[in-house]
Amino acid sequence: xxxxAGLGLYDExxxxxxxxxxxKRADKxxxxxxxxxxTGTTVERIEKVIGxxxxxxxxxxxxxxxxxxxxxxxxxxxxxxxxxxxxVATTHVDLAIEAKKRGVDVRIINAPSxxxxxxxxxxxxxxxxxxxxxx
Length: 135
Description:
It is built from 5 helices and 5 strands, in the order βαβαβαβαβα. It is α/β, with parallel strands linked by helices. The chain has a single domain (2-128), classed as Tetrapyrrole methylase, N-terminal domain (Cobalt-precorrin-4 Transmethylase, domain 1), CATH 3.40.1010. α3 runs parallel beside α4 (90-101).
């Protein structure tokens, strides 16, 4: 199984209980922070909350070698953590689609976000017009 989970917007305390529960049961946990950053925490603090080691992925790891996560998800529970919501980035959507094509079970755990309401429908947020962040 491949689980794509969002960590929320700021720090390790924004993670949902559902994400935490699945992380504690996962065989392997990866994270990527190139599509978005958690500015209020570190990977070490997230690891402490989860109680497991997290392997950081680069953009190249995910975009060019994402199939490795999918294949690993055939026999193990593999989790990919992202800042914000996992279904906003097209890279994550592509990973979920490819996993389903290859017969790997996919579970999405959305983070609390306005984007979640659109992303969970399978529609791409970019199709709704420009998005703007207001700091």
